[in-house]
Each structure stands twice: as C-alpha cells, then as structure tokens.
Amino acid sequence: MAVKDSPEMFCYQCSQTARGTGCTLKGVCGKEATVSRLQDNLLFAIKGISAYLYHARELGYTDPVVDAFIERAFFSTLTNVNFDPQSYLNMALEAGEMNIRTLRLLKKALVETYGEPVPTRVQTGTVKGRGVLVTGHDFKALEELLKQVEGSDVMIYTHSEMLPAHGYPGLKKYKNLVGNLGKAWYDQRQLFAKYPMAILGTANCVLLPRPEYKDRMFTSGPVAVPGVVKLPNFDFGPVIDKAKSLPELPDAPGDYVLTTGFGASSILALVPKIKSLVEQGMIKRFFLVGGCDTPMKASEYYREFVQKLPKDTVILTLACGKFRFNDIPLGDIEGIPRLIDLGQCNDAIVAVDVAIAFSKLFRVGMNDLPLTLVVSWMEQKAVAILWSLLALGIKNIYVGPIVPAWVNQDILRVLTEQYGVKVISTPDADIKKMMG
Ligand code: SF4
Ligand code: SF4
Q: Which residues in 204-223 are b (16+ Cβ under 10 Å) and which e?
C-alpha cells in the first residue's frame, strides 16, 4: 500500500499562512503536516456525520451528544488550539463512535416513520404515464412527493441511493412509486438525458446537469445548482407540473429486477437457518461488499470480485457500490439469498448489528467471524463509516479503490499496523487471501 507524492499539507485558514497563499510544508504556527492531515480527516468525518444528522433531524430526531462532539471537534481545528497528533487519532475514533450513534438515530427515525424494511423486488424500466426521477438520499422529500402525486398519472422512479426506499412499508404503500432507473450517482448525465422525465435532486451526489435536461431538473433540501429551480418546504408543484408537460413514457420493463430492503429483523429471522448452513459447511464465508461507487476504472474490481467469489459465500451489500453487481443473478443457498441488500450507506448500522448477532451466535469475537469487509469509498460519509468500523475494533478491512489523498505515511502506518487496513489488489489475489 503506497501513498502518492503530494504537498506535505495545505492550510490557509489564518492570516499567518506562508507567503499569504498557504502553509504546505509545516504551519507557520508550528502545526505539523500529519496534524494538518488528521484535522482534514476529522473534518471529513464530521461532514459525513452531518449528512446523516440532517436526515434524522428532518424526521424530528436529534442527539445533543453528537451536536456537542461536532462543536468540540470543529473547535479543535481552529488556529493554535491543538497540535497533538494522538489526540486527533483519538478524536477520529470518537467521530466513528458518534457516527454510530448518528446511524442508530437515523435508523430509528426511518423505522419509526416508515416501518422496518422488508425484502422487496423492484422493477427497472418504465411504465405508461409521466415520470419524476428522484435521486439522492432524502426519503422525506420522496415521501412528500409521493403524497403530492397520489391519484395522478405521474409515476415516481428512484435512482441510485433512493433504491432502498422501495423496501420501507411507509413508502412502498404509494402506488405511484413504480421502479428504479439507472445505477450509481455518476450515470446521471446519460440517464437524465435519456428519459423525458422531470428530475428531483434531494441530497449529495448530484451532478451539474447537461443543458438538454437542465430545465426539467429541480432540487430540494441542501442541494443547489445554478440555473436549476430549488423547491423550498417540500412544495413539489413545479416538478409535478413539469412532469405533466412532458411526453408519456412507454410500458417498457427493464432487463432485470432488483431486490432490496433486508432490514435487521428480516436478516435476524434467517439466523438459525444460516447457523445450520454454516455448521454443515454449506456457507463458508460472508462478505460485506459495498460503500460509495466511483466512475474509476479501478472500481471495476467490485463486480469481478463478486462474480469470482465461491458459490458457498453470501454477500451483504449497501450504498451505491452495489450497482456494480446487483443485476447479477447470484442465486441462493438453500433459500438464503447470496446477495442481501441492506440499503443505503447509513444502513452500515444494520451490517454492524448483524455482525454483532453473528458474533453472539457463533460465540466468537467479530474479528474471528467468517466475515470480510470490502469497503469502497468516494466521499466523506464513507470516511465517517470507516472510523465507525475501526472504533468498533473491526480489523483487516479491505478499502478501495484508492488510498485517500489525505493519508500520508504516518497515518498509513497507523491504519495498517494498528487496524490491519488493506487496500484492494486484484480480485483473484484478494479472494485467495480472504478464503484462506
Ligand atoms: S493555522 Fe497554521 S498551518 Fe494553518 S494557515 Fe495558519 S499558520 Fe498556516
Ligand atoms: S453511497 Fe456515497 S457515492 Fe453513492 S450516492 Fe451515496 S454518498 Fe454518493
């Protein structure tokens, strides 16, 4: 595992900054490069936590303990407050713990608002009628839109991280929620240009639009794009009117059907059967393969990895990384699906709860379970999740597709020596190591 050559650090947050442009070797204040990078790491984790907190707060759920941590962590990164690298490593782990609290809070908010997800088959392709394609992560925005199109011929389609909405009883009950189009966030430009639908961007991972669909795109919540109408207070009249003004879509089912919505209860109900299959040697290993997808060539790893896994393995997945392989018919092992979609990236908490349940069931520590985590990262929510997994003491996580740019040799040493973090290599080599 190697880090790339780059400036030692970059900080331009105070008037002392070197040459009036930026401290790049060491701070004029005395801040060391590793501390500067660990401050960046902490800020990235806080950004991720904030996104999850935002969605929980929208549903009326807050946590003053997390709020207080965020204030303290931000404060620590001010000029001339904290020069101690170890304290930033400790705070990164604390950020991981705070993120676990936040993920639990958001899961509670979602389950109490929309019910516990249930495994659900989701159609791809279009149905007859007008359409709105909803991208992002905000179920509250989706629900408000669904309420406002009830009884009309405007059908609602999910894109990317909205797919798991189909598994929630409180959302799937709406007849106008008809399917999913496209894959991970970065296919937006082709997908949105292809289908004559109105588009609603509700959260992060929105791309600047192409001219051919810019006038039929709208945003809500934190999303703002120059030249695109932003709709406040969940008033979705303009996006619905736009959909009604567009040509009717044909009845054109897609080539495959997706399955999502494995909540904790539906997986825990399978636990006795899973235990027996493991004891009989019919399931050899579990993998959590998921996280953020990227358009990088290196991310092709994940599809090949899943395709090459032995047939006696089960794959848990979450977040938009699943679109690399969720169209592959992986079958089942005596009725246990080989691909289990836990949902959005925040459903990492479901994965954690399942791992805890397995660890009790098999009476071993989490690191002794027949479970390997293969996590992909793109943006800052994934940073928060990585520190959550490390805070739980989970070791030997495989990360990819690349080493984060803010990691230098000092930070890398901590991640590899203390936590056994590895960067993905090739599917064949990694599977050989993982299967032992
Ligand atoms: S806080 Fe320190 S490292 Fe950052 S700009 Fe000021 S002097 Fe430079
Ligand atoms: S999983 Fe990550 S990359 Fe994918 S849409 Fe969500 S935040 Fe973006």
A: bbbeebeeebbebbbbbbbb
Question: 204 CB less than 6 Å from ligand 2?
Answer: yes
Residue closest to 58 by CA, chosen among 217, 202, 206:
202
CA nearest ligand 1 atom 1, residue: 79
Strand stretches in 224-378, DSSP E: 229-230, 252-260, 285-291, 313-318, 332-333, 336-337, 339-343, 371-376
| Contact criterion met (CB below 8 Å) for 23 and 17 | yes
Phi, psi for 139 (deg, rounded to 5): -65, -30
Ligand of minimum distance to the alpha carbon of 204: 2
Terminal Cα distance for the chain, rounded: 20
Q: Closest Cα to atom 3, ligand 2: which residue?
A: 292
**In ligand 1, which atom is closest to the CA atom of 22?**
5
Main-chain dihedrals φ then ψ at residue 124, nearest 5 degrees: -105, 170
Closest CA to 315 of 230, 373, 381: 373
pLDDT score of 233: 97
**Beta 120-126 vs 252-260: how paired, if at all?**
antiparallel
Contact between residue 16 and residue 4 where contact means Cβ atoms under 8 Å apart: no
Give 94-141 pLDDT, tens digit per residue.
999 999 999 999 999 999 999 999 999 999 999 999 999 999 999 999
Report which of 376, 380, 359 is spatially closest to residue 368, judged by C-alpha positions: 359
Determine whether the shortest distance from the Cβ of 364 to ligand 1 is under 6 A: no
Q: Give distance in angstroms: CA of 50 to centre of ligand 2.
A: 14
| Residue recorded with tokens 């004029």 | 28
Say which DSSP state 417 is in: I
Phi then psi dihedrals of residue 180, to 5 deg = -125, 140
How far apart CA 23 and CA 29 sit, in angstroms, is 9
* Token pair 């991640």 in the structure block, residue: 415
Ligand nearest to the CA of 16: 1
| Statement: residue 213 has pLDDT above 90 | yes
- DSSP-derived secondary structure letter, 209: P
83 lines ligand 1 (CB under 6 A): no
Q: Whose CA is nearest to atom 2 of ligand 2?
A: 292
pLDDT value at position 96?
A: 98
| Full-model pTM | 0.96
Is the pLDDT assigned to residue 361 strictly greater than 90? no
From the list 259, 309, 316, the residue with the least C-alpha distance to 291 is: 316
